[in-house]
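Q: Sequence in, structure out?
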Amino acid sequence: MTNTGTNIVTNTVNIVVHDEYDDTYIRSILSGVKTIAVVGASARNIRPSFFVVKYLLSKGYDVIPINPGMAGREICGVKTYKSLSDVDRPIDMVDIFRNSSTALPIVAEALNLSTLPKVIWMQLTIRNDEAAAKAEAAGLQVVMNRCPKIEYARLCGEIGWAGVNSGVISSRKPKLNKGFQSFGIVSRG
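A: Exactly. Output:
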């Protein structure tokens, strides 16, 4: 048995304590996924889900907004789908931007997809231990009460530009990405 902080690996069973996550766990998820479905994405540019979609797109992810009321229209220039089952390509990560009580049916829908996602991610303030247990029992990684935008920015040091201590010190020169400085935790080519 090896203990890597909050992630305990016993034989082949990975038990994740969802009260805190190792940076290596979060980094491996964000560097290992390419396609992210954001369930509860909003077209309103003042909503946090809009910012997350826009930010993840700017980092090179294939972001798929899920919003029944916007199906067929665009959010951040990307086609929006009614549900996960309507998406026309495999999804690596499902980012849940709905309340905790809706997490279980969203996970159930994700587990019924022909190609299972690798990760279920529940946004800030969203925690559903039953949904997490179902996803983990199916072999998926789970993150709860975290934001991928914040975690990405923290891990690459960008969050420090806003005066937040990211705990990351780097002498790397940021590259320009569409006229803006951009660090990355993974190269997207």
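Helices lie at 23-32, 48-58, 103-111, 129-137, 148-156.
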